[in-house]
Specification:
Layout lengths: L2 H9 L3 H29 L10 E6 L7 E2 L2 H6 L4 E9 L3 E2 L9 E4 L1 H4 L7 E5 L1 H6 L3 E5 H6 L7 E5 L8 E9 L7 E4 L1 H4 L7 E2 L1 E6 L5 H11 L7 E5 H10 L4 H29 L2 H9 L4 H33 L2 H4 L11 H28 L2 H6 L3
Length: 381
């Protein structure tokens, strides 16, 4: 019998205990990785290639406060602005749903064309969308989910606005970070909001990421001390402000993760202590045969680390496999678009399991080191 087979035999001598220990580590690692992935998705929204070129301009007081449409001519003249369109959130419901998972926005179809940087028209005709004020531009994911096709109609029930638009699908876009949205002509809202005197926000594209800070500063300064002061920010900063409305998600997930790690440590330490306590006589014999403390500690460490490693492989690998093949967007009713278990998160989970495997071996190793050969031989199995 060599050293590796000796360690393996000791680790596997109690099959039920090994199974429960590995399962506990696997479940804990799976939960830890899932929590960290959830935190990442909620606090770091996905960023598209053109996000650095787009800027959102909203009312400085509140996002719910509209902006005067006359601001358009001022924004257009600011150096670095390539395209600008009104961008008003409609917030209606579709197909009798209580909560609709995709957003709807009223825009200027002709101006909005210049904002589609990474997106493309997958089917239909964008010019048809421009010509027909009762048509809409729909994301490919929404088309697939509701089994729609170009030419079908989508009827929405207004919540914020007293209008129930019945729209014809003119074109379908794809290739963006979120291919779910629906865009329709702002003139439909203008008819019920005073003939186009207000907009929700302004959505604009700048010439390059380098000039974006200057454009933001210029827009804020242009409307400073006016009746409708604005707050211009990048698309990413705008997304982050929405995530902040969910509360301190990071602290919550970190707290739960700490509880998971602590519980995992208790399980590991308890298992190893129980396993070593049952083998005091055997370890005393090894001491009597001339094995040194560091060698016995190596045996215990290898056993503890091995169990933690196997549990981590099953837990982390299983979690990655599960979230890679499940349709989370459908499962979460559109709340989460992506749920990517990154290599960094998997490495973090593996590191936690490895550290706990080492820590679990310390207490039993100290007990063995303090044990004399005589005391160990007197111990009953």
């Amino acid at each position: 019998m060599n050293v590796l087979s000796f360690i393996a035999k000791n680790a596997l001598r109690n099959g039920r205990r090994v199974t429960l220990t590995v399962s506990s580590v696997a479940v804990s690692c799976a939960l830890l990785v899932t929590l960290q992935t959830l935190q990442r998705e909620l606090t770091i929204p996905p960023e598209s290639e053109g996000a650095s070129l787009r800027v959102i301009v909203r009312n400085k007081v509140s996002l719910m406060q509209p902006l005067p449409a006359r601001q358009l001519s001022v924004i257009e003249r600011i150096p670095g602005v390539v395209a600008v369109s009104p961008f008003t959130f409609f917030g209606g419901t579709y197909a009798g749903e209580t909560v609709t998972s995709f957003a709807q926005f009223a825009i200027d179809p002709e101006r909005f064309r210049g904002l589609l940087v990474e997106g493309r028209i997958a089917s239909g005709d964008y010019d048809d969308f421009v010509r027909d004020r009762t048509s809409c531009l729909v994301g490919a994911d929404t088309m697939t989910r509701y089994k729609l096709k170009v030419g079908d109609r989508m009827k929405f029930t207004g919540t914020f606005y007293p209008i129930d638009p019945d729209l014809r699908i003119a074109a379908v876009f794809a290739g963006t970070v979120d291919d779910r949205g629906v865009f329709f002509n702002h003139k439909l809202l203008d008819d019920v909001t005073g003939g186009g005197s207000t907009v929700g926000t302004w959505y604009l594209r700048v010439a390059s990421a380098k000039v974006a800070p200057d454009v933001i500063t210029a827009i804020n300064a242009a409307f400073a001390n006016s009746s409708a002061e604005v707050r211009a920010e990048t698309e990413r900063a705008f997304q982050m402000s929405f995530m902040a409305m969910l509360g301190d998600v990071k602290s919550l997930t970190l707290s739960i993760s700490a509880v998971v790690v602590f519980t995992l440590m208790l399980v590991s330490v308890s298992t190893m202590s129980m396993s070593i306590r049952e083998r005091f006589r055997e370890l005393a014999v090894l001491k009597a045969l001339g094995f040194r403390r560091r060698e016995i500690f190596s045996f215990i460490l290898a056993e503890s680390f091995g169990l933690a490693f196997v549990g981590a492989v099953f837990g982390i690998g299983g979690t990655w496999l599960f979230w890679s093949h499940i349709n989370l967007q459908k499962l979460s009713n559109g709340f989460l678009i992506y749920f990517e278990v990154t290599p960094r998160i998997m490495a973090m989970g593996g590191t936690v399991a490895a550290v706990l495997g080492i820590l679990s071996a310390i207490a039993p190793a100290i007990a063995v080191a303090r044990m004399s050969v005589a005391d160990g031989l007197r111990t009953l199995d």
